[in-house]
Amino acid sequence: MKNYSTFDILGPIMIGPSSSHTAGAARLGKVAMEIAGNDFEAVTFYLHGSFAKTYKGHGTDRALVAGILGMEPYDERLKNSLNIAKEKGIKIKFVETDLGYEHPNTVKIVFYMKDGKKVNVTGSSIGGGSIVITNINGYNVEFSGMYPTLIIKHIDKKGIISKVTTVLAKHDINIATMKVNRKIKGKEASMIIETDHEINSTVIEELQNIKEITNAKAINPTTKRC
Amino acid sequence: MFNTGKELLKIANEKGLKLWEIVLENEAQVSEIDKKELRNKMKENLVVMKEASTRSLENDIKSISGLIGGDAKKVENYRKNKKTLCGDVINKAMARALSCSEVNAAMGKIVAAPTAGSCGIIPSVIFTAAEILNANEEDIINALFTAAGIGQIIAKNATISGAEGGCQAECGAASAMAAAAVVEMAGGTPEMSLHAAAIAIKNILGLVCDPIAGLVEVPCALRNASGATNALISADLALAGVKSIIPFDEVVEAMYNVGRALPVELRETALGGLAATPTGKKLMKEILK
Q1: Any residues with CB less than 8 A from the CB of A34 and at least 6 apart, and which?
Q2: B191-213 pLDDT tens trace
Q3: Domain total for chain A?
Q4: Which residues in chain A land under pLDDT 50?
């Protein structure tokens, strides 16, 4: 039996029509944008399952684009997001596809950055506006975007975790969940840490200074109502 | 902490508290946020609900698919200008519920209560009852906490998702939450609130979720109107002293079991019920082309 807050029951405040297909989609877009950064010139959305079938009627397309433009699920500009993206000169494309064995409300978002790089983020809208990010650039991950989240890329070596946790402890940041993953032993690895406290730029700087860490990024959720 | 209606009643009777007081106290404890801030947070819901329940009474708005829009205005005009069969209260409640659903379907701002598909019932019932009872904003905020508490119990012991339990889970939960809240607002006892909630669910037990093209439009908006009516009559029955022979917790369990017994076609998949009628299928083809 799961416990629900009164604001899980009366809430979220959102743009309709569907918490999973609209509010959740906006959150997926926003978290993906925070992972990729906002220096992109084109974005392609690969829609899977129910997202692929009903995205127009549920405004899933507008919600996803609103998300990558940084809008929250309750932002009334959400409805016009496709035009706003156009005005900003961002090329948007939707592709209906089959991503294989995934949750029915899944999207793979590919950001084409101005520097020529590509960033892939895959996630699912799992009901009531809640989401889970499942893959970033080929790494399997699992986090909700509900908590401040640290995404770290590093060399697979002994002692990195303790270096990271030392920095977090110093800044009085409590770890809620933590997942470590690697592609090849001794090469590139990733760490996803959800925390109870906001992660500021000083923390990120200190983490970047650890020489085995190739990249550190923080996502601090602003939506507390979803 | 309360997990069931029975536990909620026990606390209410032992401590002599209103349901909203118990729900608010519990939320403050669990979230570690003080009650004043929680009330302010609930007021944000109230503001959005108010706007959604009035916006399409006077404005013509169309849903994205074009299937719905304009019915709230029709009912409001009918209420104002004609001799209605059900009277002002019911017609006002139906118009408000339709307004919320139409705003939702047109990508306007709403409060999921407990879901987006059932977002019209609670605002419509609480605002309509508040007018009759001369309740002020604080009373309405109290009512929203009572409603939320009933929803917490249903979500915990059953489901509030149409994909899991059909429309009876979404509109049924919303009706039960609204009914319990306005019984308390009208001065009814905690027992009466739970009887009202039980009656409201019983009245639509077994209702399937069969939206045309899978969209939150048809028949969802009309079921919000009838859900609001269901909540108001259930509240009146309970306030008159009518009891639900089957206690609230057992009704919730029955709703869950009925929901699990529904085939997948009748749980938000647009494969059965109204969605699978010739007209439903034709509309789906046109909309999703």
Answers
A1: A219
A2: 999 999 999 999 999 999 999 99
A3: 2
A4: 224-226
Smallest Cβ distance to B112: which of A1, A5, A19? A19
Residues A124 and A180 in one domain: no
Residues A165, A98 within the same domain: no
Judge if A44 and A111 occupy the same domain.
yes
- The pLDDT assigned to B81 comes to 98
Q: What is the ipTM of this complex?
A: 0.96
Distances (CA, A) of B259 to B162, B179, B253: 9, 21, 10
A84: domain CATH number is 3.30.1330.90
Range(s) of the domain holding residue A157: 149-219
Helix (H) / strand (E) element for A127: namely strand A118-127
Per-residue pLDDT tens digits for B61-107: 999 899 999 999 999 999 999 999 999 999 999 999 999 999 999 99
Q: Residue A110 domain-assigned?
A: yes
Same-domain pairing of A158 and A48: no
Inter-axis angle of helices B167-185 and B248-261, nearest 10: 160
Residue A135 class from Cβ within 10 Å (0-12 exposed, 13-18 middle, 19+ buried)? middle
List the single best residue of B26, B29, B64, B284 to mutate versus A (max A Cβ within 10 A).
B64
A131 and A153 co-located in one domain: no
Q: Hey, are the CB atoms on B112 and A74 less than 8 Å from each other? A: no
Interhelix angle for B5-15 vs B190-203, to 10°? 160
B50 SS3 class: helix
Least CB-CB distance to B145: which of A6, A54, A57?
Answer: A6
A91: left (phi over 0), alpha (psi -120 to 50) or beta: beta
Q: Residue B151: its chain A contacts at CB < 8 A? A: 4, 9-10
